[in-house]
Specification:
With 211 residues, the chain is α/β, with parallel strands linked by helices. The protein has eleven helices and nine strands. It has a four-stranded parallel beta sheet with strand order 3-2-1-9. The longest helix is centred in the C-terminal third of the chain and has 12 residues. The radius of gyration is 16 Å and the shape is globular. The structure holds 2-keto 3 deoxy 6 phospho gluconate. The site of 2-keto 3 deoxy 6 phospho gluconate (ELE) has 13 residues, from strand 9.
């Protein structure tokens, strides 16, 4: 996997994870794999995230592990050092885009407007995160962006659920969707990885559901 486009093609759903305990990272990654998903985005929203990335990179080679919520150049560097195979940002400033590009890793920059998408395209980036998807106009907005910007492909994230994911996945400019619904807080707190595996299996089947 070397480009953002490769990243969008890995799975119909990119599981976005907020983890409080780094110890949970390996069993969680294995549960996702058992369900048929081979990618995981660990968000840098918790102090445990970098250690979690390190563990998954070292112990679960079959899953592609990346870092989400990358908002500063320092975080881009730390995530790369921890072994992240890709980076995801919620938004895109020039400074942040320069820093993530410098890591050499594939990445998905977050955009929520046509102008932001154009700015990313001017840099040669054609695989983008559409965030926050539902709050920014959802399926209708993304469909409308496809008119003037047919060369761009998106991973809508933020408010995406098993209910609306098929609608997003049916759009020609959507490669995959992202979401936290695969790792409910209660399931993580209870260490219920069987439930997470079952949610992953349903998510892995979503592409067919979208037709
Ligand atoms: O912080 C970031 O960089 C993010 O990645 C934001 C997440 O993608 C969304 O918060 C996921 O939203 P839900 O699936 O609606 O829970």
């Amino acid at each position: 996997m070397t480009t953002g486009a490769d990243l969008l093609a890995l799975s119909p759903v990119l599981p976005v994870v907020v983890l409080d305990e780094a110890e949970q990272a390996v069993p969680l990654a294995r549960a996702l794999l058992r369900g048929g998903l081979r990618v995981i985005e660990l968000t840098l929203r918790t102090p445990a995230a970098l250690a979690a990335i390190e563990r998954v990179a070292a112990e679960v080679p079959d899953i592609v592990v990346g870092a989400g919520t990358v908002t500063t150049p320092e975080q881009a560097e730390q995530a790369t050092k921890a072994g992240a195979a890709f980076l995801v940002t919620p938004g895109c400033t020039d400074r942040l885009l320069d820093a993530v590009a410098e890591t050499g890793l594939p990445f998905l920059p977050g955009v929520s407007t046509v102008s932001e998408a154009l700015r990313a395209a001017e840099r040669g980036l054609s695989a983008l995160k559409f965030f926050p998807a539902e709050a920014s106009g959802g399926v209708a907005y993304l469909r409308a962006m496809g008119g003037p910007l047919p060369g761009l492909r998106f991973c809508p994230t933020g408010g995406v659920t098993p209910g609306n994911a098929p609608e997003y996945l049916a759009l020609p400019n959507v490669g995959c969707v992202g979401g936290t619904w695969l790792t409910p807080k209660e399931a993580l707190a209870a260490g219920d990885f069987a439930r997470i595996g079952a949610l992953a299996a349903k998510a892995a089947g979503l592409r067919q559901a979208a037709g």
